[in-house]
Amino acid sequence: MGALFDANFNYLVTPKLIKIVYILSMMLVSMTSLGVVAIGLWVAQLRNGWLLGLIIIGASPVLWFFQLLLIRIFMEAVVVRFKGVEHLRVIKDKI
Description:
About 80% of the residues lie in helices and about 0% in strands. It is mainly alpha-helical. The two termini are about 30 Å apart.
C-alpha cells in the first residue's frame, strides 16, 4: 500500500499486480470463449444452421488458445521491461 503513495517511484507496483491482471485476463478470455460456444449452440439449433454452429463451436478452443497466447506475450513483455529496470538499478547502486 505504501508503494502507491511513493512520489519518488522507488517501488514499482506493476510487477506486483501483473499476476492478478493475468489471472483476471485468463478468466475473461475463458468466459468469452464460453459465450462463443453458447452462440455456436444457438446457431446450431436454428434451421439449416447446424454446420455453421459446429464451425463456431470448433473455433472456440482455437480462439481461446490464441487469445491466451497473445495475453501471455504481452504480460511477459511488461515483466521483462520491469526486470530490466530492476537490474539497471542494481548496476547503478554498485557504481
